[in-house]
Amino acid sequence: MRIYETVISAFSAVWAHKVRSILTMLGIIIGIFAVTALISVGQSSNAAVTEQIEGLGSNLLTISIRDSRANLDTDDIEGIGNLSGVAAVSPYVSSTYTVKNGNNSMEDISVAGVKADYQDIREYGLLSGRFITDRDSEKRLKVAVIGVDVAVELYNSYDVVGETISIDGIKYEIVGLLEEQGDDETESGDEIVLIPFVTAQRLMENTTISTIYASASSSDIVEAAVANIENYLLQYSSEDNGFTVTSQESILESLDEVTATQTAMLGGIAGISLLVGGIGIMNIMLVSVMERTREIGVEKAIGATRRDILLQFLFEAIIVSGIGGLIGIMLAQFGSGFVGTLAGTEVTVQSGVMLMAFAFSVVIGVGFGIYPAIKASKLNPIDALRYE
Amino acid sequence: MSLIEIKDMYKIYEMGSDKVHALDGVNLTIEEKEFVAIIGPSGSGKSTLMNMIGCLDTPTSGKYLLDSEDISKFSDRRLAKVRNKKIGFIFQQFNLLKKMTALGNVERPVLYTGCRRQERRQQAKEALDMVGLTDRMGHKPNELSGGQQQRVAIARALVNNPPVLLADEPTGNLDSKSGDEIMKMITDLHEAGNTVILITHDSGIAEKADRVLHLSDGKIVSDTRKGSGI
Ligand SMILES: Nc1ncnc2c1ncn2[C@@H]1O[C@H](COP(=O)(O)OP(=O)(O)OP(=O)(O)O)[C@@H](O)[C@H]1O
Ligand SMILES: [Mg+2]
User: Fold this and answer.
1) Burial A326-352 (b: 16+ CB within 10 A, else e)
2) pLDDT digits over A172-185, tens only?
């Protein structure tokens, strides 16, 4: 019998038992939906975090000093800026405060102490005024550069240069307004206040420098810059893990690793429901073979080969699981908005995932349909014909 | 060469310690174009013998040559082909596929030959025409009378023009009028040149055959040809 004739014949058999086929499909639909949706959530959140990290600039280097005896001062940090491959460097210290303008106030605003280079490192643009200068820092001036959200919330205007802002009860003069940065996952990039580094050290009563941001002169020499900085810092701390220098790339790599295992785990858990769906198919196919034993006997008596019978039942299983898979994928696709709100990220189902899910549903059909199909094909014609 | 040659055929069912000899050393040759009736009491092994000839069952021991070929050496594929092309089987219980129309049922054996749709339709329609059911093509078995169902089954048996027609009590489930019609069809087929082997309980029907085999306890106890004087 021609293959496409067998496929047609399998379709009509599936159609002939509509309710049963749909109920069996349901297991696969749920399984494929769960697998597709969860893998997509994993991938999408990874993509979101990646975008956020890349948004910080691919040349960004983060230096964390953990060794409390390292005792770097601002001059030592200038030294990093002189290393080959390093374009800019700025120490960084931050804490959250309530900031006020008269009666308007905002709580838990991130206030960070930085030096002039920080503007280049973060590629900040200014809407008006100027950025923090090294002179501000040396003189410990009480000046501030603020984000647009702070300006809007406290002053209800972008015209803020020259105004004063109160941080933890101390007044600062606003000298610049940052361009809008946009929101990321957890916080607004525009709800920030930047002040001179040394001023911040005094405000926060913290003189140890534990975070330093730097930028490599170009993205090709990030690795070399990291090595130079590590070398340089050895004179301050020889302790294991006394300091770390991480590039965006290395952060992305470890992020990818984490999300890959996470995604695999989620997919695996969802895969269990798919397994249950597969067992459902096997169950129904076995019942179907038993019910149709006489029919199989008749088919054999009029010329069906074992292969014809095997393919007929196998295709029936594949049709049920394949269609179930397609519906599951469609549900995941159309329901991605809903799934996204549950997961807290925007979820898109990638075509690669859809293809893989469909292939998987077909594999389930073959895997769980093959045993009943073989069982049907092996029936002896006369035993099958006599079956009551 | 004979069409069918059976040598020393045994079929033994073991039921616990009991052994049932459904066929107990059968030797038989049937020539082309013969019309053979098989009679005998219930349980004498008539259906068992018929199923062997139809390649639906395998003997415990013995040889079966069809067209001089040893069937026992055939693969599943070749056996299926023999059942498809060389043998037309008519059952007492009709054995039609319930989900299919009359036309669908008759088309089915042609489907297994690998014929294209057009050709298949054509052949099936011709076969249905031959049994006078052109106007019932689209009916499912449960929408047909017993006689009509058996006629569909005959059309199905004929559709691939097999040389051998096997009928196991084809009138057993029919009233006498439909039974007569079916018998008329079968004798006509014999006259048209088919080899016909027929199982019956009805001695009136057996008389229409050229040759009568009498089975008892799995053995052929008599083999009479018309005109041989019995
Ligand atoms: N699958 C089986 N298992 C055990 N015994 C069987 C089986 N099939 C047939 N038999 C036995 O083989 C013998 C012959 O059976 P068969 O069906 O050939 O008889 P028959 O002559 O066709 O009878 P009837 O006229 O009632 O149709 C019987 O005794 C029957 O009980
Ligand atoms: Mg019988």
Assistant:
1) bbbbbbbbebbeebbeebebebebeee
2) 999 999 998 765 54
Q: Does the beta-carbon distance from B97 to A300 stay under 8 Å?
A: no
Q: How many CB atoms lie within 10 A of CB B228?
A: 8
Task: Name the one residue in this structure whose structure tokens are 């590039």.
Answer: A247
For A322, residues 6+ apart whose C-beta sits below 8 A from its C-beta are: A358, A361, A362, A365
Interface of B with A in 70-109 (CB under 8 A): 76-77, 80-81, 83-85, 89, 91, 95-99, 108-109
How many residue pairs bridge chain A and chain B with CB atoms within 8 Å of each other?
Answer: 63
Over chain A (388 residues), what is each successive 10-residue block's mean pLDDT? 87 91 94 90 82 75 81 82 88 91 89 91 89 89 92 90 91 92 64 92 86 86 87 80 83 82 84 89 93 94 94 95 95 85 80 91 94 93 89
Q: Atom of ligand 1 at shortest distance to CA of B44?
A: 21
CA nearest to A17 within chain B: B99
- Select from A12, A16, A302 the Cβ nearest to the Cβ of B84: A302
Q: What does the block give as tokens for B71?
A: 């069937």
Q: What is the pLDDT of residues A271-297, one digit of tens each?
A: 888 889 999 999 999 999 999 999 999
Q: Report how far residue A384's alpha carbon sits from residue A306's, in angstroms, rounded to the nearest whole number.
A: 13
AA letter at A197: F
Q: In degrees rounded to 5, what are phi and psi of residue A79?
A: -55, -35
CA angle A80, A86, A90 (to 5 degrees): 55
Which chain A residues have any C-beta within 8 angstroms of a chain B C-beta?
1-2, 5, 12-13, 16, 294-295, 297-308, 380-382, 385
Burial of B140-166, coded b for 16+ CB within 10 Å and e otherwise, reads bbeebeebbbbbbbbbbbbbbebbbbb
The residues that bridge with A183 in the sheet, in sequence order, are A188
Burial of B46 (0-12, 13-18, 19+ CB in 10 A): buried
Q: Do B85 and A5 touch (CB under 8 A)?
A: no
**B95, B111, B160: residue with CB nearest A1:** B111
What are the phi and psi torsion angles at B209 (to 5°)?
A: -80, 160
B48 Cα: distance to centroid of ligand 1 (angstroms): 6
Across A182-216, b (16+ Cβ under 10 Å) vs e yields eeeeeebbbbbbbbbbbbbbebbeeeebbebbbbb
For residues A161 and A158, what is the distance between their CA atoms, to the nearest angstrom? 8
Out of 3.40.50.10070, 3.30.300.130, 3.40.50.300, 1.10.10.10, the CATH code matching B2-98+147-225 is: 3.40.50.300
Q: What is the model's pTM?
A: 0.76
Q: Which tokens sit at A13?
A: 């058999």
Structure tokens at A45: 């959140």
What is the end-to-end Cα distance of chain A in Å, rounded?
A: 27
